[in-house]
Amino acid sequence: MSAQPSIIDWDALIRGSRIHGRLYRDPEVFEREFVAIWHKVWVYVGHTSEVPKAGDYVRRQIGRQPVIMLRGDDDRVRVFFNRCRHRGNLVCHRDRGNGRELRCPYHGWTYANTGGLLAPTFEEGYDDKLRREDFGLTEVPRLGAYRGLMFASLSASGISLDEHLGQVKEYIDLFMDVSPTGEAELCTGIQKLRYNGNWKFLPENSLEGDYHGPFLHRIAFELHSRRTGLDLSSLYQNDVPDVIRSLPGGHMVEDYRGASVAAPARKPTPARLAYVEMMEGRYGKEKAAALLGTTPPLVYVFPNLIYVMTHIRRVQPVAVDATYVYYHPLLLKGAPPEINEARLREHEFGFGPGGLISPDDIEIMERNQVGVNAQGDDWQFIGRGLHRDRILPDGGSTGYTMDENHLRGMWQHYAQVMKQHAA
Amino acid sequence: MPRERGHDSAMGDALVERFLYREARLMDTHLYDEWLALWTQDARYWVPCNSDDVDPSREVSIIYDDYERLQQRIQRLKSGTVLAQDPTPRMRRIVSNIEIETVDADHVRVGSNFLLAVAREREQQLWAGHSIHGLRRIGDELRMHHKKVLLINVDQEMPLLQFLI
Question: Which residue of A has its CA nearest to B160?
Answer without folding.
Answer: A353
